[in-house]
Specification:
single chain, 39 strands, DUF5916, 50% strand, nine-stranded mixed beta sheet, 729 residues
């Protein structure tokens, strides 16, 4: 079967092409900031009046990145850094035109980058231009921290223990930070790290960077970092461990059929142990994730499972080692498969750098059995290795194993319901050119199971190019019929996919428009005999305005041959027969308002034909209003109207989500989310009060209510009080 799809020549061609772009020197290596060690005790107050700061070297003369990247920034910025035996310190001053107002959504931690005047620090301790850490603050003191991967992606779900303070004035704002060395990972005896500083000033719509960065790339791009030069290697961390226990109590009740809810008292926690300065061991016992924010519901009119991101803290540090293998819809490992409706007993993870070029990820999780369903206890094990090659590329290896324990003691009926084991083995090459203009990937995956029906193959490759005016991407995927990934996310099997995108930007000399241009995108699916099963062709035009608002228009042409029966309303009505063919056209319209307004809105619509000669009207609005910096109100409205022939006739439904985010201080937050999904007749409330009474230590009060509406009526509610504390040495 694999020879019929002929993926091997494409695989080899991509690999050869990738290597041609892999060698080059780091672009901004000559931009340097020198750090010296201080013996002075620094007070983190956002004032920076200590003698140490008067002597520290300043990084200044920032470059403009947006709206144009061919000049220096108009808003001056200055950053200084020093260190002592325990912490890395930063003092940054951002001048502004008097009279220009600050733009801040709220004091919420890990704020939205595009909606706040902010400063971000990007650190690459291994100087490998692919991984690192980001810390930052907005103009009113809300904190930002995250891990960096894939050359510039930031995972804000990661939290670390550090402190900062901000002072705001008429003509400037100042941020001061202290980041413990124990909170980050780095290689010992190394005196040069990659570093860059980014500023967003929404009053002038200006994004700037210490080092020059082409406008098509984010300021987080590690390919364009400068160099942080230490007068001596950073201190050795010595014994580095953290103990993070929790205790919680929950009361609740359920009136939903087949769902019971018992009050509980629960104790557990995590342990973090630094095996080296760059390699960490994480242990979790009886973990609980009741404080994690609720998933945002979406209307589903697709034929496939939807993806929801991981938000549980234990799975997030170095998450790219486990989660970035493959593509969005060919993931051999998806951590949300672990603990799905079943308690996690314990888990362990070793992750980080073995040396400058080799990263390791090793995870093992144990779940409990469920007597009411017969689900056996299961073990989930993952091994990931990532070896840097050339300037910024890497070769990755992944092995995923899911094992049902005491499987042979199960009744025959349960053995047919649950799999004894499922394994995935994969190898991939990730390309990242030195200038970041070329990026790509080639990977292969093999699945194994108790018999041949679980043994399959998946493979993919892509190459992407980005310049100031041109961008294009070509991609190819193949998944065999028997490829099985029970711990992954693979919503469809038995297909070949070809994908392509090409776009061009015009950069006019205008005080109203920053850029505009066309883009074509096509997705084409085939069966293993290369017969077309579905495709989407999209031709669009986008305009980006100087005030950071944008307008987009797309026309699309879509074809679907159903491979299985499908209800086009996804509401439990009649199904269209497998093998039927459907073809339609339509248009997408979108407009995003300028982010510096107190009232913001994003509007999108989809108008066009639909299955079985029908017509679909989709209207979406995201509305926001802020009473900065304490209150941010948001509403998401989505309306679908499906006008179809009998037996469906007209089906329409709403999805409504409203959110109130109240930040009393940058340590006390109250967030309440209401969601109503008419498609699945569900109404939900998630309300979370969080008090960060000490760095990385929290008190949570969480209320959840889930209401099933007619015809499946019932209610499930719970109230949880959870206390966590971070002990460390």
């Amino acid at each position: 079967m694999i020879n019929r799809t002929n993926p091997t020549p494409a695989f080899i061609a991509f690999a050869i092409f990738f290597c041609a772009f892999s060698f080059a020197q780091k672009k901004n290596a000559d931009y340097k900031i020198h750090l010296y060690k201080t013996d002075e005790t620094l007070t983190i107050d956002g004032i920076g009046d200590e003698a140490t700061w008067q002597k520290a070297e300043a990084a200044k003369d920032f470059f403009m990145v947006l709206p144009m990247d061919d000049r220096k920034a108009t808003q001056p910025s200055e950053v200084k850094m020093v260190y002592d035996d325990k912490q890395l310190y930063l003092l940054a001053t951002f001048y502004k035109t008097p009279g220009n107002t600050y733009v801040v959504e709220s004091l919420r931690r890990d704020f939205s980058f595009g909606g706040n005047d902010n400063f971000l620090l990007f650190m690459d301790p291994f100087n490998n231009q692919t991984t690192g850490f980001s810390f930052g603050a907005n103009a009113y003191g809300a904190q930002w921290d995250g891990t960096m991967s894939n050359g510039g992606s930031i995972d804000l779900n990661w939290d670390s223990k550090w402190v900062s303070e901000v002072q705001s004035y008429e003509d400037k704002w100042v941020v001061e930070m202290a980041i413990p060395f124990k909170s980050i990972r780095y290689e010992k005896n190394v005196t040069e790290w990659g570093v860059n500083f980014s500023r967003l000033d929404l009053s002038t719509n200006e994004k700037s960077s210490w080092t020059p960065i082409p406008r098509q790339f984010p300021t987080a791009s590690l390919a364009y970092t400068g160099t942080m030069v230490w007068d001596n290697p950073p201190p050795k961390q010595g014994l580095n461990y953290s103990i993070i226990p929790y205790v919680l109590g929950t009361v609740g009740n359920s009136s939903i059929e087949d769902i019971t809810y018992d009050n509980e008292f629960k104790v557990g926690g995590d342990v973090k142990l630094g095996l080296t300065s760059s390699l960490n061991l994480d242990l979790t016992i009886n973990p609980d994730f009741s404080q994690v924010e609720a998933d945002r519901q979406v209307a589903n009119l697709t034929r496939f499972e939807l993806f929801f991101p991981e938000r549980r803290q234990f799975f997030l540090e170095n998450a790219d080692l486990f989660a970035s293998f493959g593509y969005d819809e060919i993931r051999p490992f998806f951590s949300r498969r672990i603990g799905l409706g079943v308690p996690i007993v314990a888990g362990a993870r070793v992750s980080g750098n073995l040396n400058k070029n080799l990263r390791l990820g090793l995870m093992d999780m144990q779940t409990d059995k469920l007597d009411e369903t017969g689900l056996p206890s299961q073990n989930f094990a993952v091994l990931s290795l990532q070896q840097k090659v050339f300037s910024r590329s890497n070769i990755g290896l992944m092995f995923v194993n899911k094992e049902s324990l005491d499987y042979n003691s199960l009744a025959d009926s349960l053995q047919t319901q649950y799999t004894k084991f499922n394994r995935n083995l994969g190898l991939e090459y990730n390309l990242a050119s030195a200038d970041n203009q070329y990026n790509g990937k080639v990977f292969m995956l093999k699945s194994f199971g108790p018999d041949s029906t679980y043994n399959g193959f998946a493979q993919g490759a892509h190459l992407e190019y980005s310049s100031r005016k041109w961008n294009w991407r070509v991609q190819q995927e193949y998944i065999s019929e028997n490829f099985t990934s029970e711990v992954g996310f693979v919503p469809r099997n038995n297909y070949i996919k070809l994908e392509g995108t090409v776009g061009h930007l015009f950069l006019p000399s205008s005080d109203k428009v920053v850029s505009h241009g066309p883009q074509y995108t096509g997705y084409y699916y085939f069966d293993p005999s290369m017969n077309s099963t579905d495709y989407v062709s999209i031709l669009g035009y986008a305009v980006n305005f100087m005030d950071r608002s944008s307008l987009g228009v797309d026309v699309f042409n879509e074809y679907v041959q159903l491979l299985a029966p499908f209800d086009p309303t996804n509401t439990g009505k009649e199904e269209l027969a497998a093998g039927t063919r459907h073809h339609w056209n339509g248009v997408y319209l979108s407009y995003n308002s300028r982010p510096k307004s107190l009232f913001t809105y994003n509007l999108t619509t989809r108008l066009g034909h639909y299955f079985s000669g029908g017509y679909r009207t989709n209207l979406n609005a995201e509305l926001g209003y802020r009473f900065q910096p304490y209150v941010s109100l948001k509403a998401v409205l989505s309306y679908n109207n499906l006008d179809l022939p009998e037996p469906w006739y007209t089906t329409d439904f709403w999805l409504v989500g409203t959110e109130a985010d109240i930040t009393f201080t940058n340590k006390l937050f109250w967030n309440t989310l209401f969601q109503y999904n008419e498609q699945v007749n569900n109404f939900g409330i998630n309300s979370r009060l969080q008090w960060r009474y000490a760095p990385a230590s929290d008190l949570f009060l969480v209320f959840n209510n889930n209401e099933q509406l007619s015809p499946l009526e019932g209610n499930l509610w719970s109230l949880t009080l959870k206390f966590t504390y971070w002990f460390n040495r």
